């Protein structure tokens, strides 16, 4: 921001980055700042994240116990098998997996297929299938097949999860009404009238209480929701079941022993080995895809977290092998537990491992407490979990990409047939739609007022498109001059030969035919980042004040509106941004340009000096983090900042709104004058004092945001809230730098840094601080 109505000392410092020294990629990881020094003496130095990981493990434990019990119930397996899988997934996959903050265990995504396997083969053979699926996952990891699993269309994966969710919810509704759970959605729907007719009022009351608490809990204030809603709902229903009249007949959880008693070994099937092998492959594929998708989601929630996909499959395979061999359910990476782990402030894989230890202790010591839980309460929990797998955001995404039919076909196939057949239907339809798009051309004829015709052909033009092209060409009147504009991405010989033959025939009627080849037919790209003065014909000196703006709006309607309208139509129902950016109001700072983002991606606030603590900005941060639940808040400063010039010139506290606003930045100036490490590093890199102050300002704003997240009296370190990132926009070079907080300096980002093993990746690895890789991923678009 550049204030012009104050002291002449406030000037826009010209950029001097062309003379700056190159950032040392091997700078030391520790800057000596007190905030990075771990507390607790020698133990704190050996285990700097012990306190954060311990508290996060307790939160994940409270989330995992009721979900593991409920998933075992929905799978038709012994209930303790859910806890066995939770312990194995936490410890084995937690130690060996490639996603350090992902938490593994029994997942809702496999309940339908496991229920079918148990119903068909029995529990002991299903354990063999789980162990075999783990071996296949080990093979996947060793042969580096993870990248192929990620090639499955998202619409198929989301449709599969939605189908599983519908099946779970419908089957558990029978239990909520007092009946028995069924395996498939169709069978569950058929049994629903009977369950309603034999309604158990107490079971309905308990199930409805859990559903109501699960749906309303996330809307309560943040201090309350720090306790997992699933735990609160199950505990409340269990307490109510002990006092409500008629509760003696309520069906409760029956474990039949402790966790140690539940350990069992698989058995070989007497026949149908083909079905067993098919089950192994199905479980391995679905568990692998779900784990990799969950790992990607964890990366987005905690910028800088990197996943080794092949190692993750090895960890999941080892966990499934162990789980199957000792009588547990199949294991996958679970997004519900992983998100709870990240939001609780976990820093290393120790939090996931510890939560498994707590589950083991709980299942051995507190068996009597588990057996007090009513089955209707777990059924109500599963109804909500199932419905949450049907995500409106996934439906909007599928629709915006023209893949809604794939999503719906997969969902319908999973619900009415089975999971494997539903996925195959979705994949087959995705392949057909891909083929259709590949061969589809869109010719349309336009007749101008002067009698001239123009045929515009878009899409792909191949031999399969010849019939439609021929139909359009035959509508051109004889003897009329015609232009054929080929705006195509593919043109094969058969189609081109047909076009030339028509051209010769039409020219025989006395007309002229001009064929414009694909490269020449494409309109020249609009200079997206050109200034008004660069593309508007009227010079600023001749314009009225409103004319540049009106010309820009007119150009938007002419060139951009139709292209952006489908996206905006999808966003009209609400926003779900992936990040928030607080940056300066300077007209040269374009947040969506420097992050390569589009509509709905970044929730942006621009103010003088990119301050994060003013009332207006604080309100925006609260809205973004609570209502929009953004996983990342970035603060972006820039070179030649007028606000920083004003701060250096002593304008903070002077008369006027700007002086009052800059009062909020006085701590920044004091930190800079006292030798803040970021400022010292910036000076060493050749930045002038205004830019040094701007960089310190970014670091201080992050510290203020982090302190506000933690609240008074909280322990230092990450708290429940979004991840934080610092950026600096060097206007003269149009380069973006990212703050490496452990190194205490801003490091450069270049397009070639987006590839693994390149400069930025090495810097991140050398500092042990992966936030730089998040900025690199922005360049992979």
Total number of beta strands: 12
Ranges where pLDDT stays below 50 over 5 or more residues in a row are: 1-39, 713-719, 751-781
The strand order across the widest sheet is 8-7-9-10-11-12
Radius of gyration: 31 Å
Q: What does the main sheet amount to?
A: 6 strands, mixed
Q: What is the percentage of strand-forming residues?
A: 5-15%
Bin the helical content.
40-55%
Overview of the molecule:
The strands form three sheets. The chain has a six-stranded mixed sheet with strand order 8-7-9-10-11-12, with helices on both faces. It has a four-stranded mixed sheet with strand order 3-4-5-6. The chain has a two-stranded antiparallel ribbon with strand order 1-2. Helix 4 (about 110-120) crosses helix 5 and helix 12 packs across helix 13. It is of the alpha/beta class and about 775 residues long. The relative contact order is 0.12. Helices cover about 55% and strands about 10% of the residues. The chain has 35 helices and twelve strands. It catalyses: hydrogencarbonate + H(+) = CO2 + H2O. Its EC number is 4.2.1.1. It is an enzyme of class 4 (lyase).
